[in-house]
Write a structure and sequence with these properties.
about 0% helix; about 70 residues; elongated; 9 strands; mainly beta; two-stranded antiparallel sheet; three-stranded antiparallel beta sheet; about 45% strand
Length: about 70
């Protein structure tokens, strides 16, 4: 994949989130608007979630994110 900004080479990666006790997990796209939850901050019950893939240009550093149904590596 080529960078849409400078035509450099894009490399695949991911963004990491730090949760309870600094547990690491892949950032997710969540369907709809955030619903506040007293106990967990945001309620995720019954909504679609997809892991986010991030592509980074090796030349200029541009980031492009995708939330595809078929992200099999996770």
């Amino acid at each position: 994949m080529n960078c849409p900004k400078c035509q450099g080479t894009m490399e695949e990666g991911f963004q990491v989130d730090y949760g309870h006790y600094n547990a690491r997990k892949v950032t997710e796209w969540v369907e709809g608007e955030p619903q506040p939850s007293f106990w967990s901050g945001v309620s995720l019950g019954g909504v679609a979630r997809l892991p986010i893939q991030v592509w980074r240009c090796q030349s200029c550093g541009y980031l492009e994110s995708y939330a595809r149904q078929t992200t099999a590596k996770l």
